[in-house]
Amino acid sequence: MTPSSPCADIDVQALAFGYGKQPLFARFDAQAGQPGIYGLFGRNGSGKSTLLKLLAGLLTPSAGQVRVRGHVPRRRAAEFLSQIYILPEEFHLPNLRPDTLTRTHAAFYPQFDHALFGDYLAVLDVPPRQRFAQMSLGQKKKAAIAFALATQTPVLLMDEPTNGLDIVSRAQFKTLMARPEQACRTVLISTHQAHDLESVLQHIWFIDNGQLVLGAPMAALSAHLQMGVASDATQLPGAERLLYQEPVGQQSAWVARRASDTEPGLVQLELLYKALSFNKSAVLAALPASMAPTATAPA
Ligand SMILES: Nc1ncnc2c1ncn2[C@@H]1O[C@H](COP(=O)(O)OP(=O)(O)OP(=O)(O)O)[C@@H](O)[C@H]1O
After folding, report:
1. Which GO terms describe its molecular function (predicted)?
2. Domain match, 116 and 230 both
């Protein structure tokens, strides 16, 4: 078990949960000790949405401890609820307009910023005076994103926020996430769209087999892993460093342990995701135990 951090916004210790007899999480540990944007990755069915619901207090752990800003989420204390917002993948909006939604719903969030809400709606091209029933799915999703961001809660959980958004809207979403008003929040975003958020994510969480197999700051990852494209076999890293390769047209994209004589480069999330999916144990073994707590060092 990872030592508990008293300052962590999110602190999960030895969490166990399953919907039926089959456990989904068994002794799951994760900490978000500092504000920032955390990307939550994992295969379909790995438990990302379930974890977000456990953190929001919508599900009850069968064992272990979940704390969010010091609160036990399942108790649903009023003070806790004013500090967290969850945007689920599927949501219901009352048949109001964005500008009237705030009259009924913003009061639950003491730091709700009406000016920011108007600004976010404008950036995302959401008509502020159109009823939700007359909006497209993507427009409704963008209105819900604008509301979630405007709550300014210290903790924000978002489940697949860019699903159903067009290419321009995805870029606008990324711009909003990079704005300074999000910087003091702990934002946990479950996504399969690694490209959408690559430049704004500060931390990566990767779930597999009921465990957090990778939890690391992006910047720290690039100190250990290196990625690139080789036009032929002579440009590939040596077998002792190479962790993953895949064809890209006539070339090969690759992931390797970083060579000590090279500068840390950019982490390409999609490539990292595939390397983790296809060669998990080798990739994790290339990282320190603080980032990959479940990895076993190679013999
Ligand atoms: N209400 C439920 N009742 C029973 N089983 C459920 C329920 N919700 C989810 N599950 C199961 O729990 C597992 C994890 O589901 P979850 O939705 O958390 O995964 P996910 O990582 O978010 O998946 P995806 O990437 O496909 O959205 C899946 O096997 C799913 O079938």
Report:
1. ATP binding; ATP hydrolysis activity
2. no
168 and 261 share one domain: no
pLDDT tens profile 179-219: 999 989 999 999 988 887 888 999 999 999 999 999 999 98
3-state secondary structure of 68: strand
- With a Cβ cut-off of 6 Å, ligand 1 is lined by 19, 24, 42, 44-50
Tell me if 40 sits within 8 A of 46, measured CB to CB.
no
CA distance 160 to 263: 33
pLDDT by residue (tens digit) across 101-125? 888 889 999 999 999 999 999 999 9
pLDDT at 76 (0 to 100)? 95
Give the structural domain span for 88: 10-209
17, 24, 211, 277, best to mutate for ligand 1 pocket (most atoms within 8 Å of CB): 24
Residue 285 contacts residue 297 (beta carbons within 8 Å): yes
Q: For the chain, how many structural domains are there in total? A: 2
181 and 37 housed in the same domain = yes
Distance in angstroms (rounded) separating the CA atoms of residues 38 and 102? 27
Say yes or no: 165 and 36 in one domain. Answer: yes
Q: Which of 40, 46, 159 to mutate to test the pocket of ligand 1 (most atoms within 8 A of CB)?
A: 46
Q: What is the ipTM of this complex?
A: 0.98
Matching residue, tokens 């689920």: 88
Ligand 1 atom index nearest CA of 53: 18
Atom of ligand 1 nearest to the CA of 51: 18
Residue 36: inside a domain: yes
Last residue of a domain, one of 154, 184, 209: 209
Nearest CA owner, ligand 1 atom 5: 19
